[in-house]
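quick q for whoever's on today - can somebody do inverse folding on this one?? i tried earlier but teh output was garbage lol. tokens:
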């Protein structure tokens, strides 16, 4: 012990004061963000999560409130209730929301790829030929008919029925391909 430090000061330094106020604030804001995510979830997904009953009731209360400030206050109260529970209670919820977010990103990217392919099919005849070569089981006549209809819909300002049908057809082809790859992996 250095002569300039008193014994009391050394004892104070050795005491654990817990997390700093800044750290407490960060943790509180993280719980508030989680509470906001839970409130925004569709009821079907919320039902699948393992949440304490008092938290479920408070989420229902927050959803009923439409006034901005009142909703914000109720959301803060929900976060306060969530902080009363152990961190471990919400670990599975955080993991589930993280996985779902990644899955949503992947699904969105796949949808954008299908939309781009649909646009190439309508703009370029060679894209249709390459799609038919990739998927020999596709009904060629039906596909070409849909492409012609989509082109005419675009110029005649008609509802984009064929445009949507092409997307559904591409989506089915993608699902078939994913199913075939899954079967190959099992063999």
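ok took a stab at it. sequence:
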């Amino acid at each position: 012990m250095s002569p300039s430090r008193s014994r009391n000061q050394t004892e104070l330094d050795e005491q654990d004061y817990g997390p700093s106020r800044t750290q407490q604030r960060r943790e509180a804001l993280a719980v508030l963000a989680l509470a906001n995510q839970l409130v925004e979830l569709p009821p079907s997904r919320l039902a699948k999560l393992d949440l304490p009953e008092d938290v479920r009731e408070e989420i229902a209360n927050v959803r009923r409130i439409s006034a901005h400030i009142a909703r914000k206050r109720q959301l803060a109260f929900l976060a306060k209730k969530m902080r009363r529970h152990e961190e471990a209670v919400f670990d599975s919820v955080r993991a589930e929301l993280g996985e779902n977010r990644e899955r949503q990103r992947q699904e969105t990217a796949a949808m954008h790829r299908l939309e781009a392919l649909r646009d190439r099919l309508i703009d370029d005849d060679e894209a249709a030929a390459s799609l038919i070569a990739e998927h020999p089981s596709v009904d060629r006549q039906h596909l070409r008919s849909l492409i012609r209809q989509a082109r005419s819909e675009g110029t005649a300002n008609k509802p984009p029925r064929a445009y949507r049908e092409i997307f559904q057809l591409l989506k089915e082809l993608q699902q078939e391909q994913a199913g075939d790859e899954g079967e190959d992996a099992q063999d």
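fwiw The mean pLDDT is 84. also The first helix runs from residue 7 to 14. so keep that in mind when u check it
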